[in-house]
Design goal:
The protein has helices at residues 20-29, 81-99, 103-116, 120-132, 136-148, 156-170, 285-327, 339-377, 382-389, and strands at 174-181, 186-189, 192-196, 203-205, 208-215, 222-228, 235-240, 257-258, 265-266, 394-401, 406-413. It is 42% helix and 15% strand. It has nine helices and eleven strands.
Length: 414
């Protein structure tokens, strides 16, 4: 074996061709002294370097492949030259690690290259590393990808070798064919997403109990448990999602329709429900308390003024009796009235003012009390409440006492 033989080398003028297992197998069974290589249990796939004619001349490797590389179904979007070159460099590095017996490092490089760009030769190298590491499910998945996208120019022997490795991994795992209606639903196995319906290819799973789920907005979740046997036949799982029951509003057209562009069934339009109105705010307790207090104060002042007016009226009556006793009934009508007549006049004025002020305070107290009671007990409409909340609220009363007028000015906003 020469150093030109690389794992999964690529032949000039053709799509990528694998010889990873050929080179490794030769290294395992005929190692040069002092060189260690990863060992694999089971038969190795054969290539042109085992039991067949040897290729002549140097074999191109990595990104030296001539012609376009087949893109698998999992490849999405165009790949830039920079990304493609980085994937090729990681692929080559993985093969170098593999030759040096660093299997975990080789697997890491293959995996990083796979995340950037997918190809059938990379899938075979990655699957071989996973098979040696005991990752049987992943190995089956990547060997299946290799077989699905294998180039027509890849060679019969190499394809047969890949098929043998796939069969080896498939004996250790199970396979599910998952059918979900409607399309577009996300499919999960044991809570891990494996893609969206429709899934055209089999899904490989580890043996044991598995839970298959499907989710789509507007539909009830579908779920099914399945017992997977190692190496058993492919099991078909069918999940039909039911649309959630929604009372469609008038004019929406009833049930959902199918989007002609994607073939995905669109759930029916949901009715637009306006948000509930905010709860009514409580009435201003501070304002009610202030109104009640002002009513009590006004009533108290009114009582005091009425008492004061009554006392001054009593003093005036006593002074009249005294003046009549000294000067007769017309004592204050003479040209030179006694000084007590002026005092009598002032007592009458003060008595009337106090009486009127007391009555005014009682009237004001009644008005404020009635307004406060009405505000506290009268149910207020929401629109009025919002309107009134935008304006300052309060009540005020100013007593007015003058020579010819006595009363109170009451102002309030509720």
């Amino acid at each position: 074996m020469t150093m030109r033989t690389q794992p999964w080398t690529r032949a000039a003028g053709s799509a990528a061709i694998f010889t990873v297992v050929v080179a490794v197998s030769s290294a395992v069974h005929a190692q040069p002294p002092g060189q260690a290589g990863p060992k694999s249990a089971g038969p190795q796939p054969t290539g042109p370097q085992q039991g067949g004619p040897q290729p002549t001349g140097p074999q191109p490797t990595g990104s030296q492949q001539a012609g376009p590389e087949p893109a698998g179904p999992e490849q999405t979007g165009p790949i830039t030259p920079e990304v493609s070159q980085k994937s090729d460099d990681l692929f080559k590095r993985g093969k170098d690690y593999y030759k040096d017996g660093k299997l975990k490092e080789a697997y890491g490089s293959y995996r990083a290259a796979w995340d950037l760009k997918k190809s059938y030769d990379l899938a075979a190298n990655l699957g071989n590393a996973e098979l040696l590491l005991g990752l049987k499910r992943d190995a089956a998945e990547h060997y299946a990808y290799c077989l699905r996208t294998f180039a027509a120019t890849g060679g019969k022997d190499r394809r047969e070798a890949a098929q043998k490795k796939f069969d080896e991994a498939r004996k250790e795992v199970g396979a599910l064919s998952i059918k979900v209606s409607p399309g577009g639903a996300e499919v999960l196995i044991d809570g891990k997403s494996v893609g969206r319906a429709p899934l055209k290819d089999e899904v490989y799973v580890d043996p044991g109990g598995r839970i298959v789920e499907a989710r789509l907005v507007g539909y009830e979740q579908g779920k099914q448990s399945v017992q997977v046997e190692k190496g058993g036949p492919t099991q078909t799982i069918t999940l039909e999602l039911l649309a959630k029951k929604v009372d469609a509003p008038q004019g929406t057209g009833g049930p959902g329709k199918v989007d002609g562009g994607s073939g995905v069934q669109v759930p029916p339009s949901l009715p637009i429900t306006p948000p509930p109105p905010p709860p009514p705010k409580k009435k201003n307790l501070l304002l009610i308390g202030a109104g009640a207090g002002l009513t009590a104060v006004a009533a108290g002042v009114g009582v005091a003024l009425l008492v004061l007016g009554g006392n001054e009226a009593s003093d005036a009556d006593a002074l009249i009796v005294d003046l009549k006793a000294k000067g007769g009934p017309q004592a204050c009508s003479t040209g030179n009235p006694p000084q007590d007549c002026a005092k009598l006049h002032q007592l009458n004025v003060d008595s009337d003012a106090a009486h009127n002020a007391g009555v005014g305070m009682f009237v004001g107290a009644s008005v404020v009390g009635l307004a406060t009671l009405t505000y506290a007990l009268w149910p207020m409409k929401r629109a009025e409440q919002q309107k009134k909340q935008q304006k300052p609220q309060g009540v005020s009363m100013v007593p007015v006492i003058g020579g010819d007028m006595t009363g109170a000015v009451v102002r309030g906003r509720f």
